[in-house]
Design brief:
By secondary structure, this protein is an alpha/beta fold. The protein has 18 helices and 22 strands. Helix 4 packs across helix 5 and helix 14 crosses helix 15. Bound molecules: glutamine.
């Protein structure tokens, strides 16, 4: 068996350059060459995981099938490669320290003074190598969050420095930097890149490959200049220009030979360039789709990253339906009885988004009511599904105070209740119902037809659930519980079968929609929205 190769991806100059997309693209290109790969992310913040972080701080919290709340970049890794990540694919400074401190308390360090070097860095190294050792991957791609020069990334970079030394020819470092264009001077400027490479070098890391993000073409002279100043071979200076969508990036990186350079640096045979057939067909179909459908996204965060996986799942489903999905953010805090028609009327379909807490829920309820009454294709996800249930309880069943215990602990009609095993939990981090659970679909229901099978598995992230005391009454009045957990009988999916498409899921289907395997619920929802548009 050949030895596992390690690719480290760092970033300089600015954040948001797209390290996650470049890491995912490297993964995709190596996978297309037949290699067995995984991608992991090391985040320098002190939270144990991003589960407790406000989406304004950190965007969406992505959830793995094995129930870990993780950074949203893991969503890109899965969407690009189709390979599931696990709790070991995302490690934070908090988790490293937690583990070191636990060991210290157990007495594992035999009286030593515990220090950042070597104890924290050893723990980071151990975690960076863990997946490669456990599963014998051909490649482990490790993305380090943050920007070179940040105080908190120092231990991670020191660990990479040591690993590059230990692993020798089995490791490469790809550094992502930015080349700004100064409009006034009409020039591309390489100085920020030079500085960020210097910063890396001062920490003992010589990058092997530079990926330069830029808005304008970098000519050969400029690449040569960067190569010269940064001790990197000219063919290892790769440009990455802005693309209309992130899905173009793997193809561009293949044209730029990023994968070839990586293989050469690792002294591996290069072989034939893979055709990326299915990926290219997806892109082609995407380019051809010009007609637009409008989907309203009712939520409280007016921030793209907060609903990243939903946006991606919708956009993929659009492509497979030969349409372009245009999403419109509808702020649920500003939605009321007076403006709801004006905001949602022109939408071909509406998604009621997940969320936590009181803020903006009245708007979500108003949206659910409007969409139900107008028979508009509507997809409620997690809190969105709970809102559909509450709205139905209030306006169809006549329980004026129907609510979730999360929003009103004293309601006499707790149609959404706290789950039994959540009642005594006081610690907020990592304690929700998390990850993949099975769900049984009712025969002849719409969802059974959509999935085309009886049992499915979907990822969860919630504390509250549909209250089974009300189940019969809901069913009798037209909202059916068509998906249930076979072990504990929790309601997973509700549906009003008399409407065109009115489905709420307690789970998050968006997490498992990938470029080559779009999620059936999103595909069907978008299809219903298109039909709705064309039959209006
Ligand atoms: N706040 C709700 C719960 O905990 C829904 C969570 C969500 O939308 N992810 O049950």
């Amino acid at each position: 068996m050949s030895e596992t190769k390690y690719i480290f991806v760092t970033g300089g100059v600015a954040s948001s350059l797209g390290k996650g997309i470049i890491s995912s693209s490297i993964g995709k290109l190596l996978q297309a060459r037949g290699f067995n790969i995984t991608i992991q992310k090391f985040d320098p913040y002190i939270n144990i995981d991003p589960g407790t972080l406000n989406p304004y701080e950190h965007g969406e919290c992505y959830v793995t099938d094995d129930g870990q709340e993780t950074d949203l970049d893991l969503g890109h890794y899965e969407r690009f490669t189709g390979i599931q990540t696990t709790r070991n694919n995302n490690v934070t400074t908090g988790r490293i320290y937690q583990s070191v401190i636990e060991k210290e308390r157990r007495g594992d360090y035999l009286g030593k003074t515990i220090q950042v070097i070597p104890h924290i860095t050893d723990e980071i190294k151990r975690d960076m190598l863990y997946l490669g050792k456990k599963h014998h991957y051909d490649f482990v791609i490790t993305e380090v969050g943050g920007t070179v020069g940040d105080i908190e990334s120092l231990p991670f970079l020191e660990a990479i420095r040591q690993l590059k030394w230990d692993l020798g020819k089995n490791a490469v470092c790809v550094h992502l930097a930015y080349v700004p264009y100064l409009a006034a001077a009409k020039e591309l400027k390489t100085k920020p890149t030079q500085h960020s490479v210097k910063e890396l070098q001062s920490l003992g890391i010589q990058p092997d490959i530079l990926v330069l993000r830029a808005e304008h073409e970098l000519n050969a002279g400029l690449r040569k200049k960067v190569a010269n100043f940064c001790n990197v071979a000219p063919d290892a200076v790769i440009q990455s220009l802005d693309e209309p969508t992130i899905y173009e990036v793997p193809v561009r990186m293949q044209q730029e030979k990023l994968d070839v350079v990586i293989l050469q640096k690792l002294e591996m045979p290069v072989g034939e360039t893979p055709g990326l057939g299915p990926w290219r067909s997806f892109l082609e179909r995407r380019h051809k789709a010009t007609e637009i459908i409008n989907i309203g996204l009712v939520g409280k965060y007016d921030l793209q990253d907060a609903y990243k996986s939903i946006l991606e799942a919708l956009s993929q489903a659009g492509t497979y339906n030969d349409y372009k999905v245009k999403t419109h953010f509808v702020n649920s805090e500003k939605l009321n009885e007076e403006n709801v028609a004006c905001e949602l009327e022109s939408m071909d379909g509406v998604v009621i988004c997940p969320g936590f807490g009181q803020r903006g829920i009245e708007g979500k309820l108003i949206a659910a009511k409007y969409c139900r009454e107008q028979n508009k294709p509507t997809f409620g996800i997690c809190l969105g599904m709970q809102m559909m249930v509450i709205e139905f309880g209030r306006n169809v069943l006549g329980y004026a105070d129907a609510n979730s215990i999360e929003m009103d602990s004293k309601t006499t009609n707790n149609v959404i209740d706290i789950m039994e095993d959540q009642k005594n939990i006081t610690n907020m981090g990592g304690t929700m119902r998390l990850g993949g659970y099975e769900c049984q679909l009712r025969e002849n229901s719409k969802v059974r037809g959509i999935y085309g099978k009886e049992t499915i598995r979907e990822r969860h992230r919630h504390r509250y659930e549909f209250n089974n005391d009300y189940r019969e009454e809901y069913e009798r009045n037209g909202m059916e519980c068509v998906g249930t957990n076979p072990d504990c009988d929790l309601v997973e999916i509700v549906e009003i079968p008399t409407l065109k498409w009115y489905i709420g899921t307690q789970f998050h289907p968006e997490y498992s929609s990938t470029v080559l395997h779009p999620h059936p619920l999103f595909l069907d929802f978008v299809k219903a929205a298109i039909e709705n548009k064309n039959n209006r």
